[in-house]
Amino acid sequence: MSIKSIKVLSRNPDHYLRETKNDIHKVQRNYDPDLHPFEAAREYKLALNAVKLERVFAKPFIGSLAHSEGVSAICRHPSRLACSFTGTVEGELKLWDISHKKCEWTIQAHNGQIWAIVAAPDGGSFFSVGNDKTIKRWSLQRAQEDNDEFPIDTWLCDSIITGITHHRYKNEFVTCGERVLLWDANTKAPKFSYNWSTSGDRNDASVVSIKFNPVETDLFASSDQANNIVLYDTRAKEVKKLKMTMRVNALAWNPMEAFILTAASEDYNVYSFDIRNMNKSNRIVTLHEGHTSAVIDLDYAPTGKEFCTGSYDKSIRVFRTDEGKSRDVYHTKRMFKVNCVLWSGDNKYILSGSSDHNVRVWKARSNQKLGIMKTREHAAMNYAEELKRKYGHFPELRRISRHRHLPKHIYHATLEHRVMKQSRARKEANVRRHSKPGTVPFIPARQKPVVGLEDDETNMPGSSVDHENDT
Amino acid sequence: MEMASAVTEKKKKRMRGKKPWQKRNILQSEVKDGVRITEYNSISLREIKKPSTHIYPGRKVIDPKLLQKYSKGEGVEVKSIGYKNKYLAHKLKEKEKAFQEAEAAAARAEILLTETSGQLLAEDDSYTSHITQRDIRDAVDITSAAKSFDLNLNQFGPYKMRFTRNGRHLVLGGRKGHLAAMDWVTKKLHCEINVMESLHDVCWLHTETMMAAAQKQWVYIYDNQGIELHCLKRMDRVLKLEFLPYHFLLCAANETGYLTWLDITLGKEVIRFPTLKGRLEIVCQNPYNAVLCCGHSNGTVSMWTPNSREPVASILCHPHPIKAIDIDPTGRYMATAGLDRVLKIWDARNLGECLQSYSVGSGASSVKFSQKGLLALAMGNVVEVYRNVTNGGASEPYMRHKSGSTIRDMQFCPYEDILGISTYHGYSSLIIPGAGEPNFDALEANPYISLSARKESEVKALLSKVPAELITLDPHSISQVDTPRLQEKLDAKISLLHIRKPKIDFTPRYRMKGKSGSAQKFKRKQKVKEDKQREFLQAAILQRDQFMEEDKKNKKEKSKPVEILDRFKPKKKS
């Protein structure tokens, strides 16, 4: 025989099969690329599946909290995730345990609408302002014991107060209405009054929204009926006043990049300003569009990467801060005009109060899985996310991930607005074509909504008390 | 004084950029009883870095050749991006690092591969090709010896055969209708039927539970009990079947030159078209990119995808009709055998480059690559196996076997050292040491797969079914940047030069007072149409003229001869 040595592949099946049912599965791996063909194409298919599953599991609505009236204000507790306050248009104030969908406390707080609620930074108390020209401060502890009907403190004003915001840590808060008033929580009279009313017209200076900056804590911004956005500083009394073409309904500061101020406008758009460039033409950093009616309220996610808006078009949209188009849009058959929105402190939920007597709880990411996940499930989710990131730019994937079913009225309104926009652009082009070159300038879309900036020292508002002394 | 200052300056220069504790090799420095005591480090830092003095020198260095095997490509040139966008550059760098880590981890995991490849050595005075199957059977262990067996099937031959992808199951199809499926390792017969028609080819589908058989008129699908599941009437008079496992496509080549791709998950035909190349009998798939390769009687090999009615590639391989082709499992090499008794090895990726050419004693009727790169040639009733065919080292056969009758079909069994040959009078499996891949990947193909694992892997495979549109010559094209090719650029240019009127779809609004009669409506429609078309044409012509002018200008600038004194001319400002 002429065989010197021989070896033939002969595997012992015991090494590859499990002995009993309770044994672990033996999975032999060999990462040789030749044994794994079509790596890219298979990955692409998996990415496609991941995107489809994302849309399959996109069920953002979790539940609703019923009220007896339309909800007009909503506020979160600074440190407790499940605790939220809501106020209705008939002056009812409610304290909610969101995780159990349970109303812990109800009280008729004001005569008429509650315009705004804000929690004190320590979380022990919260303020509400209403149509009855009062500011009321409520104790959370006493509210939860459910035996109290009276506020801790009440401030009386001479005019209706439409908004309130609290300083990040000082015992101060600012209210707005006909005038912007700075209050110390310990005294009954306002500390300072910022009075912009120059024309004497009451409507001119009626301020609709006000917000303290969470980082540069002495800075706050307001928006008023005269289409102005005004920036104040409690120390220097220095102000900047930006005139817009349309009214701004709500303001919000980016909690992580506090120089970004986002304004929900009556002209269906949301604008993000860089307040460092307020006097330059590039002040609007991002123009967020998508709503088909006036945007009423907005709130930032605690990460500062996203915010949600509520609009009169009966929908809620979620925007990424650096993108112009919305990431998602939430709507239901029964939801009516949205008055207030809130992003929860754990970045997982969105609350929206609408005029159909409901506060709705939504997931912040519509396909998010709630509850505890197994490690393998987590790994699969992470893999799917990575695949989506890797292949997300492919047209088929992009089409699926971007598609949203919209209610008829929004769908048609969007089409109509598009036609209107096109026709306006066409008209402008025609005008430009038939006029002397250079007379019709090109104005970028980000500059159009702004009329101009009023920034001179002479026009600075003084306290109303000072004014009286002068005269 | 001056000297001293110069010295201190020098010192300063040396010390610049160093932190105070890095100045000297100070181990410890403290003030004790008003006197500073400083302990100096006797070993310099450079000495510490030496790996030889270190107890634990770090992870084992991976062999660069091994890394090359698991390489995922060259990677991105980060430097060129870094100038403009540091953030992006950092991101890319991180990504690149992740890729490298993955490569290294895959290379390190090779230590976990337990099995080694088979081999055969002959005594110094003899050749391995003289070793017979009986010698091998006597030499190896009993389980391996049991893998070499013969089946005498005298009645219904000649036989076609096919192994499953995990190498566990075998299907035999006799020309006279005999169809049998078996687990050839345990010799357990799944089914044995006679289809009562002529049988031209057999093929497993994605699992061992289903097989396709090309019969006299149509293609039929049977399950492993021999029950007819489907009759595919879209595939008629088929001579050759191929199954693309990752695309779930059953491909059929037909007597009249038609190619058909059928998605077996939906039962829908993807495409069917005539190749216009005559009878298609010599067909194989490229496992690397799922392209079908057909050998023709004019000596060409054409490659087909379901996305084009033209061949994606066509090579003139032999001056005579082609008898057999095969592509190796890695997709690197293609072997063709012609009637001219020449065996040629081609680079299957860089088409048109013939790597090797061998003259074979008599015309090969079949060629087959094994997983480890052995090449089997069937010539009449003799099968010869060669090693190192791709790099020209195959001067004599590695093994040789003479069968009782003419060989009709053969295939190397995946993950086993077995070559199965089917003849006019049966089937025999030959032991060819070193043919199969020793280490399988259980998630791709597992010879020891359990029933539940098979079910699960079937679901997984279905979920990652690759769309038929992605079949291209280069399977990585989906992960590459889509740059317009020269032809596309030319087409774009041509389309710019040949302007066509656009179609304008316009429905006139209804108007009162008899203005919406059909004639009026038509007139209005025509007017709008003409206006819009005129507008478009004017713009397009303007664009074309601009383009032409630019083109001319470029040509003029190029054609101008350069004179010596031109260098003194003022430079143009761009």
Automatic annotation (TrEMBL), chain A:
Q: Where in the cell is it found?
A: Nucleus, Nucleolus
Q: Name the Gene Ontology biological process terms.
A: maturation of SSU-rRNA from tricistronic rRNA transcript (SSU-rRNA, 5.8S rRNA, LSU-rRNA)
Keywords recorded for this protein, A-Z: Nucleus, Repeat, Ribonucleoprotein, WD repeat
Segments traversing the membrane: none
Q: Which Gene3D superfamilies match?
A: YVTN repeat-like/Quinoprotein amine dehydrogenase
Question: WD repeat boundaries?
Answer: 107-148, 288-329, 338-372
Superkingdom classification of source: Eukaryota
Looking up PROSITE patterns in the UniProt record yields:
WD_REPEATS_2, WD_REPEATS_REGION
Q: Name one Pfam family in it.
A: WD40
* Region ranges (Disordered): 428-471
Sequence ranges assigned to domain Sof1-like protein in this UniProt record: 364-450
GO cellular component, as recorded: small-subunit processome
Major localisation: nucleus
Family note: Belongs to the WD repeat DCAF13/WDSOF1 family.
Q: State the name under which the record lists this protein.
A: Sof1-like protein domain-containing protein
The species is Cherax quadricarinatus
